[in-house]
Amino acid sequence: MKKCYQIKIFGRVQNVGFRRLSIEKARELGITGFIRNEPGGIVFLEAEGKEKALQDFLSWCRRGPAFARIERLDFSEIPERDFTDFRIDQV
């Protein structure tokens, strides 16, 4: 079953390769969507894919890249968006 999650990650998550490595992980898992940095040092994502793949992706996001320090991860299910790839969103 396909789902879509909105995810916010708090902590030291900017300038540590989080976006680039998230793209690699998402593509490996067959997840589509986007990721972007937001003010206040937050990383924001929308990720869509099969439930198992999303759970694996969330597990990866809770750890992040080597230099990241995750303080909190919030996510909620949102309506499907039918993304075609996973990319960095430039606001």
Describe the structure.
With 91 residues, the protein is α+β, with helices and mostly antiparallel strands. The chain has a domain at 24-31 and 53-72. The protein contains two helices and five strands, in the order E-H-E-E-H-E-E. It has a five-stranded mixed beta sheet, with helices on one face. A hairpin with a 3-residue loop joins strand 2 and strand 3. Helix 1 runs antiparallel to helix 2 (51-63). It starts with a strand and ends with a strand. The mean pLDDT is 95.
| Number of extended strands | 5
Number of H/I helices = 2
Outline type = globular
Measured on Cα atoms, how large is the radius of gyration?
Answer: 12 Å
Helix-strand pattern: EHEEHEE
Structural class: alpha+beta
Low-confidence runs: none
Briefly characterize the structure.
With 91 residues, the protein is of the alpha+beta class. It has helices at 18-29, 51-63, and strands spanning 2-12, 32-38, 42-50, 69-78, 86-88. It has a domain at 24-31 and 53-72.
